[in-house]
Design goal:
Blueprint: E1 8-11, H1 17-28, E2 32-37, H2 40-49, E3 56-60, H3 66-79, E4 85-88, H4 105-130, E5 136-141, H5 156-175, E6 181-186, H6 204-215, E7 222-224, E8 227-228
Parallel strand pairs: 1-2, 1-4, 2-3, 4-5, 5-6, 6-7
Antiparallel strand pairs: 7-8
Helix pairs in contact: 1-6, 3-4, 4-5
């Protein structure tokens, strides 16, 4: 009897922090994990560090570069023929230093390009491969800062693009409802990473756990620690 092939998961921004830990947890659950970074050397270094967790492979991928996305998609399509899980984790610019009134619009556009249009482009590029999975999942790493119910002042670019990412999540979820592709948004909480800072109360293991949970979740929504959050 032939062995059932492992599920394939791609994680963006995977060379450190939450993305790195998501890769570790997915690999330990038997996934073949594609560890991506916009610097090829960093992707390879991360994959070497994760080798003991399970099957991992480095992939060069800059979510802000359409040609990089196209090249990664072609490479994965050739080698695996499908994708089971896409985790949109890559993100930049937690702009706590500015307000909407004085925000540098050039920086805002850079944030939107990476943190919103990056996941959007990834979804467009990889949906043909996700459609070949029996139970595909897209997990967009969001934040409660993007919840309209809880939103207030600061950080402007960060929370506006998280709200937009939530809107993209709901839109895709509606479109793909009958295609056996579930789309979730997950808030990992305030996690002690380079972006979150050393004083954050949650570990990367705790933050990543909810993302990994959503990668096998039987329904769609916006969650933190497995509990629904208001959009």
């Amino acid at each position: 009897m032939s062995k059932e092939p492992s599920s394939v998961a791609l994680v963006t921004g995977a060379n450190r922090g939450i993305g790195f830990e998501v890769c570790r947890q997915l690999a330990s659950r038997g996934f073949v994990v594609l560890v991506t970074a916009r610097d090829e050397a960093k992707a390879k270094t991360a994959a070497r560090k994760l080798a003991n967790a399970g099957a991992v492979e480095p992939v060069l991928l800059d979510v802000a570069d359409p040609s990089s996305i196209k090249n990664a998609q072609s490479e994965i399509a050739t080698k695996y023929g499908l994708l089971d899980v896409l985790v949109n984790n890559a993100g930049i610019n937690y702009d706590t230093w500015e307000t909407a009134e004085n925000a540098d619009i050039g920086g805002v556009m850079e944030t939107i390009t990476t943190n919103l249009l990056g996941p959007w482009r990834l979804c467009q590029a990889f949906l043909p491969l996700l459609r070949k999975s029996k139970a595909a999942r897209i997990v967009n790493v969001s934040s409660e800062s993007g919840s309209l119910l809880h939103m207030g002042a600061c950080p402007p670019a960060y929370q506006v693009k998280k709200a937009a990412l939530n809107a993209l999540t709901r839109t895709l979820a509606g479109e793909l409802r009958h295609a056996h592709i579930l789309v979730n948004a997950v808030c990992p909480g305030w996690v002690a990473t380079d972006m979150g800072g050393a004083g954050a109360p949650r570990s990367v293991e705790e933050g990543a756990a909810g993302i990994v949970w959503a990668a096998t979740l039987p329904t769609g929504g916006f969650f933190r620690d497995g509990k629904p959050l208001p959009w």
